[in-house]
Amino acid sequence: MFKHILVPLDGSRLAESALPAASFLAGIFQARITLIHLIEQRAPAAVHGQAHLREAREAEAYLETVATRAFPSGFKVDCHVHDVAVRTVAEGIVAHATELDHDLIVMCSHGQGGAFRLFMGSIAQRIVSMDSLPVLIIHPDEAGEAPAFACDSLLVPLDGIHDHVLALEVATKIARACQSSLLLAIVVHRFETLRGSRTMTSRLLPGTTSQFLEMAADEAADYLKNLENDLLRESLPVQTRVLRGDPAATIIETAYETPVSLIVLATHGRTGTDAFWSESVAHQICSSCRLPLLLIPLSSR
Fold first, then answer.
1. pTM of the prediction?
2. Which of 58, 200, 234, 288 has its CA 20 to 30 A from that of 260?
3. Residues facing 158 on adjacent strands
């Protein structure tokens, strides 16, 4: 499935949180790995409290050291330093898609926090908005170290829209390779969690709105049952759930309570103000959940 994994590194321990996941997937899929560092215009002297790599020779030595330290012998690991300064890291990574011919980006999300990050989006989210390649987002643990990575159980949030099944197609391939279990879920709003224009409609037509939500839950159950039967015929361990509540919050809560190893989510790639005002579920999950998240751009179909 994955043949070439790209791992952007900036020299910080936080960015190296992506390395265990890249090593795990490269071992499963026999994939080639490229470690990349991009020299930035007006790069700061420090990043995340550590010296920032700003010279090509220094970056090359760093990547070679990481390649030896982070991956078992026998893995195919290349190192690439883009020494022509780029305006933004996200644009630089996307620009290398054709040159390096990678099909998965694995990176740590460690941008600015709080409301600013929720509003503007992380580098990883901006890459998804510009490119058609899947991006696996890894968060460092509470100590800022690289977390262990596994694919024992996958959560695949769906919404009944045909295009979003693309996430299930990817998750199914990963599940076969890793012998993982699948949890397929659709979240249907409760009356009290409706937002935006739906709130006004619910106030004007409370009874009709409640009936509509119950019908949506029934339809979601039928839809998931059909998917479950198809996957069981392929001997894949799968469960399905219709969940009720705010989509992003409910998905995150379910992922932690189950628990799952990885969330696989299709996204339109909205970031910044677009994601903020459209209440993008993927954007909210990426900004609030620290579990590994594989974002599948719908444009990749």
1. 0.85
2. 234
3. 186
